Amino acid sequence: MTLAVELPSDRHSDRTWFPVCAPSVLVPGRGVAALLPDGGQVALFMDRAGRPYAIGNRDPFTGAYVLSRGLTGTADGRPFVASPLLKQRFDLETGACLDDPAVSVPVYRVREIAS
User: Where do the DSSP E strands lie in the chain?
Assistant: First the structure.
């Protein structure tokens, strides 16, 4: 099996699934970065229950592609990753910044596909 992220399509707003990595690559508490077809990057994480998450890898506060190297945790029961640079926390389910509600990162749906 392979984990794939859902990408918007250029045609009729259909979506397509893009394979990124084997589930075994993800370790709870650590992120992995993957390059997307459009040149963007996604940061993938897995929680201790085995649920995968994918958000944009670009830290909107610095412009650096580093969120995959951030520290994970929970706040009020919500999983987050804290940027390794300025420590802003991003909700892994919604992409919202927990420290500045005006800022967010893209969120991608994740699923397993046959490899």
Answer: 2-8, 15-21, 32-35, 41-46, 52-56, 71-75, 78-82, 89-91, 107-108, 110-113
pTM of the prediction?
0.92
CB 74 within 8 A of CB 80: yes
Tell me the one-letter amino acid at 55.
I
Rounded CA-CA distance 107/56 in Å is 6
24-39 pLDDT, tens digit each: 999 999 999 999 999 9
Contact 55, 42 (CB under 8 A): yes
CA pair distance 38, 10, nearest whole angstrom: 11
Task: Give CA–CA dist 30/72, Å, rounded.
Answer: 7
